[in-house]
Structure formats: structure tokens, C-alpha cells
Task: inverse folding
């Protein structure tokens, strides 16, 4: 056999392989998903560009030149802050929800409907907390107050940073706390289901027993911490008075 | 027509340009998919890897459809995408063909020592092919597996026909030397 023939024969082993019957459908779906993703990215980029242009246009109109240099009315910069923070809340909420959905479904696997309701309650809490944060700092300043533009912009950027930091920290706490909440909830749900089934309940697995033990330990630890804090708050002034 | 039904079912609204591109991709799929999956299979570890490459290639083809001026070159274009994707993914390469189950499935029943000799011979050739440079390997695979002409190989790899000739000659020489060493 010549080298060419050997090479041809070896390569033609690939003839054993045919595409899966569903490959064509997968190609179609991939193209659709890719297009949807690209359109979404384009919308995001256009929104950012539009937002930047509108912001620059707003400042071009609002900023005036005076003896102190470039200045802006206090209410104008505050209005800009409130608008941007409001937009941030509205834009971030559905994205956070989208990523959180599968995480929550995994934690509340014994009752996915509870997971959905938990997310809905979290949404309400999210809006209350962040709208509250915006309103707390909603002082538009005395009428006619003018601020130096550079300093006002730096102050605004700090507020945005604080806001995003608060959002990030609260979500981090949520992410860390949720598995513990899920553990306790699933343990209680399993107990309720077993009581409902009575003698017909299947025997518990080692894993379920271990999860129930961990849930009880967490609840006991939480009770101890709360009692210790309460005791400290009650007894603290008394002990301080005695020692003082 | 298939895609029009899928689109209607998904309640999506596609522009006429998007529909034209989909029709173009569908047409090319029916002509080339089997050959492309087999070509990708030569460079990947398994069927799913080969199909992933072909899937990705058709997505890229879809987006580049507007830039392809000559429809006759679309087969060469998608072949080049498949080869580039296979190379980029840095698979184990041609060695994989000899490790698959059922290597002897399509061969008629033979004496056991003849089956072993054929499999070992194939394995030696594929191992030797794996030692070549990517360009030489691509040229030889397109020449001896897909039976493409030098012109078609040149279009696929975006090189001149003379370069194809040179790569094939050098590749075969290196193969011969390698197989003599093994022997």
C-alpha cells in the first residue's frame, strides 16, 4: 500500500460519523440566541451612549460661568443624581432577578413556588431600601444655591459609589444568608411532609438527617446570638452604672 | 420553510435580511453539514466536540453572510472556519480517531491479525500526521480526505495554489520519513 493510500484510508475512518439528527435544529437555535444576545448588547451600548450624550447635554445647559468658575444650581445637580439613581434601580432589578432565579430555585428545591414568592418579597425589599436611600438624601438645597461644578460632580460620584457599594453589600449578605435560610426551610418542609405521610413516609436518608441536624444547629446558634445581644443591651447600662 | 415555521412558533419578528441569511445558511447546511462534521471529527476528541465546532462555524457564517460576494466560495469559507475553530480549541488532534470504540465496526469480518495490522497502520499514520505543522496537516487532510483540488484547498486556507503544492509535498515527505523511523 502506498503512503497516499494509507493516509486516505486512515482519514476515512471519520466517515463512520454522521451528524446527530437534531444538529440542524441546534444550529437554528444557536443563531437565534446569538442574534438575541447581540441585539441586547447593542441596546445596552446604545442606551449608555444615549445616556452619556443626554447627561453632557444637560450639563451643557445647566452649568454656568461665574466669578467662582463653572457653577451649577444645587437643585439641578440633585435632580441629575436622583434621575441616575432611579434609572440604576430600575435597570439593575430585572438583571439581578434573572441571575438569582436559578440560585433561589436550587435553594428552595423542595418548594419552587416558595422560591418564587421569596424572590418577589426580596424585590419589594430591594425597591423599599434603595428608594429610601435616595429619599433620605433628597435635599435640593436652599433656593438659588449655586455649587462649584467640579466639587459638585465629585460629590455626586461619591454618592453613586456609596449607593452601588450598599447595593453590592446587601446582595452579598443575601447570597451568603440564603443557603442557611434554605436549609432551615427545607428541613421544616421535610418534617411537615413526613408528619403528613405518617407511617407511609419513606425512611430518611443520611444526607437528609445530616441537613436537619445542621438546620437545628443554625437555629440554636441564632437564638443564642440574639439572646446574648439582648442581654448585653439590657445589662450593659446596669454594669456600666455599677462600674462607673 | 422550516425556519419560517420555527420563527412563527417563537413569535419573533425577523427582518427580510435576517430571513435571507437564514435561508442561505440552511441551504449550505444541507449541502455541507455531513462533510464538515466529519472534517471536524478528524481534529476533535468526540462527536459532540465536532458538532460544537460545526455549530459555531454556522453562527459565524450567518454573521459573515453579507460579506460573501461569491456564493460558490461559501463552502470554502465555512471549511476554513471549521479548521480555524478546530485549531483554536487545541484538541488532542488526530490521535483521537484511533482511540474510539467501534473502530472495526464498518470493516467486514477478517482474520484477527489482519484487523490488528490495519488498526495499527492507521494509528501510525495518524500519529505521524499529528507531528506535522498545522498548515501541512490541513493541506493533507483536505487533499486526501475531502479530495479537494489545489485550487479549492487554496481558497479554503486563503493561500496560493503553489503554497498548497509545497505544503503537500513537504508534508508527505515528513510523513514518509516519520513512518520509516517508526518502522
Result:
Amino acid at each position: 500500500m502506498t503512503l497516499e493510500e494509507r493516509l486516505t484510508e486512515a482519514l476515512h475512518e471519520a466517515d463512520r460519523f454522521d451528524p446527530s439528527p437534531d444538529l440542524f435544529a441546534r444550529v437554528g437555535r444557536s443563531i437565534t440566541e446569538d442574534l438575541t444576545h447581540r441585539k441586547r448588547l447593542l441596546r445596552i451600548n446604545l442606551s449608555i451612549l444615549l445616556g452619556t450624550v443626554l447627561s453632557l447635554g444637560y450639563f451643557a445647559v445647566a452649568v454656568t460661568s461665574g466669578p467662582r468658575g463653572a457653577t451649577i444650581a444645587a437643585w439641578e445637580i440633585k435632580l441629575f443624581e436622583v434621575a441616575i439613581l432611579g434609572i440604576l434601580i430600575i435597570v439593575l432589578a430585572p438583571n439581578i432577578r434573572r441571575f438569582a432565579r436559578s440560585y433561589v430555585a436550587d435553594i428552595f428545591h423542595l418548594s419552587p413556588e416558595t422560591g418564587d414568592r421569596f424572590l418577589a418579597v426580596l424585590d419589594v425589599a430591594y425597591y423599599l431600601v434603595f428608594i429610601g436611600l435616595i429619599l433620605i438624601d433628597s435635599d435640593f438645597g436652599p433656593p438659588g444655591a449655586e455649587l462649584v461644578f467640579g466639587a459638585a460632580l465629585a460629590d455626586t460620584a461619591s454618592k453613586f459609589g456609596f449607593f452601588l457599594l450598599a447595593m453590592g453589600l446587601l446582595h452579598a449578605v443575601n447570597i451568603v444568608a440564603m443557603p442557611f435560610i434554605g436549609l432551615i426551610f427545607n428541613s421544616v418542609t421535610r418534617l411537615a411532609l413526613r408528619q403528613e405521610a405518617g407511617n407511609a413516609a419513606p425512611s430518611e436518608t443520611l444526607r437528609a438527617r445530616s441537613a436537619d441536624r445542621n438546620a437545628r444547629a443554625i437555629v440554636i446558634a441564632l437564638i443564642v446570638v440574639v439572646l446574648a445581644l439582648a442581654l448585653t443591651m439590657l445589662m450593659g447600662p446596669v454594669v456600666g452604672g455599677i462600674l462607673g | 420553510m422550516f425556519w419560517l415555521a420555527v420563527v412563527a412558533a417563537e413569535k419573533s419578528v425577523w427582518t427580510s435580511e435576517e430571513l435571507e441569511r437564514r435561508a442561505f445558511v440552511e441551504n449550505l447546511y444541507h449541502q455541507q453539514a455531513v462533510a464538515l462534521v466529519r472534517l471536524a471529527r478528524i481534529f476533535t476528541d468526540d462527536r459532540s466536540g465536532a458538532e460544537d465546532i460545526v455549530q459555531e462555524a454556522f453562527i459565524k457564517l450567518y454573521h459573515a453572510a453579507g460579506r460573501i460576494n461569491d456564493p460558490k466560495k461559501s463552502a470554502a469559507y465555512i471549511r476554513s472556519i471549521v479548521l480555524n475553530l478546530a485549531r483554536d480549541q487545541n484538541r488532542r488532534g488526530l490521535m483521537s480517531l484511533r482511540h474510539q470504540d467501534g473502530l472495526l465496526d464498518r470493516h467486514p469480518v477478517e482474520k484477527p491479525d489482519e484487523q490488528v495490522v490495519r488498526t495499527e497502520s492507521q494509528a501510525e499514520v495518524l500519529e505521524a500526521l499529528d507531528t506535522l505543522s498545522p498548515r501541512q496537516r490541513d493541506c493533507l487532510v483536505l487533499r486526501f480526505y475531502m479530495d479537494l483540488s489545489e485550487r479549492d484547498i487554496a481558497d479554503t486556507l486563503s493561500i496560493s495554489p503553489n503554497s498548497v503544492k509545497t505544503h503537500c509535498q513537504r508534508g508527505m515527505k515528513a510523513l514518509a520519513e516519520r513512518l520509516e523511523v517508526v518502522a
In short: The longest helix of chain A spans residues 149-197.
